[in-house]
Amino acid sequence: PPGYDLWLGYSEIEEPALLKEYQNTFKSIYFQNGNEMLHAAERELTTGIKKMLRKLPDFEKLRNSENTVVIAKKSNLESSLLKRLAFDFDQLGADGFVIKTVLFERKQVLIVTANEDIGILYGVFGLLNLMQQRESLKHIMLSDAPKVNIRMLNHWDNLDRTVERGYAGFSLWNWQKLPEYIDQRYIDYARANASIGINAVSLTNVNANALILTPAYLEKVQALAKVFRPYGIKIYLTARFSAPIEIGGLETADPLDLNVQNWWHGKVKEIYDYIPDFGGFLVKANSEGQPGPQNYGRSHVDGANMMAMALEPFGGNVIWRAFVYSEHDTSDRAKQAYTQFVPFDGKFRDNVLVQTKNGAIDFQPREPFHPMFGAMPKTPLMMEFQITQEYLGFSTHLVFLPKLFEEVLHSDTYSKGKGSTVAKVIAGSLNQKKLTGMAGVANIGTDLNWTGHPFAQANWYGFGRMAWDPYLDSETIANEWIKATYSQNPNFITAIKSMMLTSREAVVNYMNPLGLHHIFDTGHHYGPGPWVSELSRPEWNPVYYHKADEKGIGFNRTPSGSDATAQYAPELAKIFNDPKTCPEEYLLWFHHLPWDYKLKNGHTLWDGLALKYQQGVDQVKTMIVTWDDSKQYITPEQHNEVRMLLQIQLREAKWWRDACLLYFQTFSKQALPEGVNKPTKTLAYYKSLKFPFAPGIRPQWH
Ligand code: BDP
């Protein structure tokens, strides 16, 4: 089916000179014999070469002088060859690899080597990627190693196979047919992840069901672990804090209760009997109704450390989420995670990571980076990005997320002076962290092309690449992905790359320009709902976030308001506090400003806001032109599916513009500036819309 192959399509090499070069290179391959992981790597190389070179490669199990390619661990290479390679293996760690062509006994030999099996697997994918990028291998010298330890997908999959905030069908995990039936999809999923270096997955929703920790499910999880193991992927499960009560028959889940502690120890031991390389637990506690240590008057540290102690003897980790805000706390929601967690810096056990969303609210089209990243030098902070597009148009809108990821990672926390970027915090280099990680909430489901929108595949791909190397730039990633997925044609690449790179700014413009945020319709988050005001908790209402009134619009987070800026380094707080120096893309995030406030370009705030909404719509129109102009380079089916999706995106961009502007106009009481299209419907019409078909909603919000 179209799109099923993802970026592993291995299209035929059409360029004759390069084809010839590759054919010469792959005359005789020595591939070190070995375990399941090496076999997986060898299988992948066979598939790739067969497809790209139209010919089955010649593999040798014994090293001989005819070999033109040698793929083996360092410990398996003869010393004369190692000498030729002249490479310092210490810099590779366990996961890194080197790909190098050397002159050996008067012949060119391409070597792929590493310290460990997993390095060989990544090296083979690295080699295949070079070929998909159509790079010459004649003088290749590439070494690469990941900069982050845990590179993880978080699935928000429920046990009934619905996916919270999932827009690409149902959950891949077929609990009914497991453990006996191994769907080919599990294998292809593992291949795709390994190809970009993802080495951990959490299978289940953070709004957890304790049943996943019972033997009936564990034997199924075990079967998945067996499929993922050769691809270097560890399984994590979400642990519901109240599991000792729900499946353990205890009366409490108090982390300081001895019976509770013993229960978790026993449970963890049981899990490791099924899955000896189990990764650990991902926990959402005391957040949005999930139980947690605070139910018993205990702290996040008490809860996390209790689980960490149970996992420690087995080498497992606790990933404790910092996405908390409380109904009892009336302070600005944006401040609450910091308030709850920063005092605990240095108090978590060594195998605890605190997983923090990229921004302080909730995966909005744009947020300033989360202030916790600059404030917990003694705690391994794991980044949580959302790959599934809950607030960015679901799987219907083309939005290239690596642009967003890059913006966050390149942000400067100033926590140790200028240049203290979030990327350095995540990679652990800023504060010498031993354990590092990055997680992405998966956008994957049973849809034939995995992600619903074909371009949403680029977000899975890009997330993996950036988890491997948080310093990578989004343009490089777009380039790689287009070539591996669609076409090698330079015209196509240039056009589509620029379309992808502007797509994120487009969605910000037509949904949440100038720092607006969380003005989505309730529950499902499909479409605009800036007028929503009657939900029980104030911070669930969009009016809480935009605070539009007769005088102006925006959330004052400066010292005269909620003072959330005080959670940033003083240098940064100073910049954010003054509307004149605050980057305009964060203006209404940090300030409540009058409708006639003058923007940098001379427009009033009202006019500027309206023009931004219009610009977003216009950018989508341009994307459509670009896509149509590129028709000749791809198949009609490929062209048509994205064309249809772009038409929906355009319609929805206009909907956002019109609904938001009509609503905000009731406060600004000003006409739309020239250049902004007149809405074709009334505000009452937009308010009346209902969406019983919106996918991915959490059941409790129906
Ligand atoms: C919000 C989602 C909700 C998740 C929550 C979380 O709307 O479905 O459960 O985040 O991350 O964005 O826990």
From TrEMBL:
Family matches, as Pfam families: Glyco_hydro_67C, Glyco_hydro_67M, Glyco_hydro_67N
Naturally occurring in which organism (per UniProt): Kriegella aquimaris
EC number(s) per entry: 3.2.1.131
Every Glycosyl hydrolase family 67 C-terminal domain range: 451-675
Molecular function per GO: alpha-glucuronidase activity; xylan alpha-1,2-glucuronosidase activity
Active site annotation, chain numbering: E288 (proton donor), D362 (proton acceptor), E390 (proton acceptor)
Record's catalysed reaction(s): Hydrolysis of (1->2)-alpha-D-(4-O-methyl)glucuronosyl links in the main chain of hardwood xylans
Entry's Gene Ontology BP terms: xylan catabolic process
Gene3D superfamilies per record: Alpha-glucuronidase, C-terminal domain, Chitobiase/beta-hexosaminidase domain 2-like, Glycosidases
Subunit description: Homodimer.
Glycosyl hydrolase family 67 catalytic domain: residues covered: 131-450
Protein name: Xylan alpha-1,2-glucuronidase
Domain Alpha glucuronidase N-terminal span(s) in chain numbering: 6-126
Similarity comment: family membership: Belongs to the glycosyl hydrolase 67 family.
UniProt KW keywords: Carbohydrate metabolism, Glycosidase, Hydrolase, Membrane, Polysaccharide degradation, Transmembrane, Transmembrane helix, Xylan degradation
GO cellular component annotations of the record: extracellular region
